[in-house]
Amino acid sequence: MEFEINGQQYRSGKLNARQQFHVARRLAPVFGGLAEASQGASTDFAHFLQPIADAIAGMSDGDCDYILDTCLGVVQRQQGSAWALILVNKAQMFDDIDLGVMLQIASKVITENLGGFFQGSAASVLSTQTATA
Fold first, then answer.
1. SS3 8
2. Least confident of 36-40, 42-46, 116-120
3. Do the Cβ atoms of 55 and 29 come closer than 8 Å?
4. Is residue 78 within 8 Å of 7, Cβ to Cβ?
């Protein structure tokens, strides 16, 4: 899948089945928070985000690093006519990839690789949120 963020072209590869499994199991609490938030009756955005924020805050640093490293590890950025990995040996190759860009990239990889597994409102909420970011 190819996509653009902040004027940069990116291309993501597929996670293998084992990577998909390990990312999905680490994200299960976050998708639970998304499902809970999407079922709430409140239109208050802060109230909507609270279950998601709680799920993310409860994740260990190791789980967060695994998800980000796995997702970013299959992404390349266009450099002229060539493509370069954005993460090599867990080191980010481009200084202009900040938190916002990193999360957008990871969410695109997650949606592409796990969208069919997490069908329903949780996956659609994630897609909608990343499209507006």
1. strand
2. 116-120
3. yes
4. no
What is residue 16's three-state secondary structure?
coil
Q: What is the pLDDT of residue 117?
A: 67
Structure tokens that stand for 110 in this block: 């997650």
pTM of the model: 0.78
- b/e per residue, 69-88, with b = 16+ CB within 10 A? ebbbbbbbbeeeeeeeebbe
Q: Please answer whether residues 15 and 23 qualify as being in contact, where contact means their C-beta atoms are separated by less than 8 angstroms.
A: yes
* Residue among 18, 17, 20, 14 at smallest CA distance from 1: 14
83-108 pLDDT tens trace: 999 999 999 999 999 999 999 999 99
Would you kindly state where each structural domain of the chain is located, as residue ranges? Answer: 2-127
Residues in the chain, overall count: 133
Tokens encoding 102: 């990193």
Residue 23 near residue 70 (C-beta atoms within 8 A): yes
Determine the Cα–Cα distance for residues 3 and 12; give it in Å rounded to an integer.
Answer: 8
